[in-house]
Amino acid sequence: MTISIGFIVNPIAGMGGRVGLKGTDGVVKKAIALGAHPVSIDRSIQSLSSFVLMSSEDITWYTCTGNMGENILKKVGISKYSIIYEPKKDYSSAEDTKKACEKFFEYNIDIILFCGGDGTARDIVEIVDKKIPILGIPSGVKMHSAVFGITPEASAKMLHEFVTDHLRVGDAEIMDLDESLYRKGEWKVRLYATAKSLVEPNYIQVGKAIFSELSETDVKDELAEHIEDEMKQHPETLFLFGAGGTIEYISKKIGVDDTILGIDAVLNKKTIATDINEEQILQLLKRYPIAKIIVSPIGAQGFIFGRGNLQFSPEVIRRVGLDNIIVVSTPSKVLATPLLRVDTGDKELDQMFSDYEMIMVVIGYRLHRVVRIQTV
Description:
Layout: E1 3-9, H1 28-33, H2 40-54, E2 59-64, H3 70-75, E3 81-85, H4 94-104, E4 111-116, H5 118-128, E5 134-138, H6 152-163, E6 169-177, H7 179-182, E7 189-198, H8 217-233, E8 238-241, H9 245-254, E9 264-267, E10 270-273, H10 278-287, E11 291-295, E12 303-305, H11 314-320, E13 325-328, H12 331-336, E14 339-342, H13 347-356, E15 358-364, E16 367-374
Parallel strand pairs: 1-2, 1-4, 2-3, 4-5, 8-11, 11-13, 12-14, 13-15, 14-16
Antiparallel strand pairs: 6-7, 8-9, 9-10, 15-16
């Protein structure tokens, strides 16, 4: 039996992450001007390279010209494919994605494999609804929808399980974040639609869970006290505060300026830079080579790197060092997040995290919990 796979890549997905734009919707030219480079092409190659090593099934691929699909298939050695759509520009638009999906209906596609973020997932489901299952290779800045593998390799494993008839199809939430509000510091995530995707709890990410932790104020006060002690003991250390509500609370409690959705640099309890991108972080690390990163896991998904904080690039993480990463969380979030996950886009770095197997999470003042870490 021949399996038919529709394949779409959003070439601009994720470009805004490392340059601090918190997304790429509507700001492609600005991202490029800031030095952003495409990441979805490499992520697609990473995923399909893994897939072709494990798959021997008879598969026909349907895709678009250039970097929307054809170039990636050629790169990994897939030759049995048909071109069903050609975008007019090098950087394809949401309309190109939608038009390609309309074409898929003509070819009895079994599943759509795409590379992008929540915006790409939204564009696809707008056309295919629940008529064709979809599976995402994670590449965007914002990925809250439950259709993405936790890493490109995980997406490859899931696709292989699907074509060998070992995974079932079920409902998956398509979430989307308003990027214009996100850039202003407002977090507004909404349920956009329900799609059909693959059901596999170890490799598919669940939708982001937003926790109401007002009853845990005392716990977050303890987290703040813990971080404040760290800063007092290491006055020469540069502290890089990640994104999220827990870290914002800690920042306010210890009296330093913070942007809830950006990366901020603090030295000796004074904020020296706010909402900084990858290049700005690297410049700061030249001046202050001793540094620590403070992050908090995304609720339920468990990601500490690779979702919403791409400014912490592989080079930044290596410069800081894995031993200088401080993960903070309230106990309730840890209970609902049994695994911590990383997806840095760098296989060797991800393996370094994997080799740790466990990571210490600060859940109170001088109180830690060991949590398992997963990279694939």
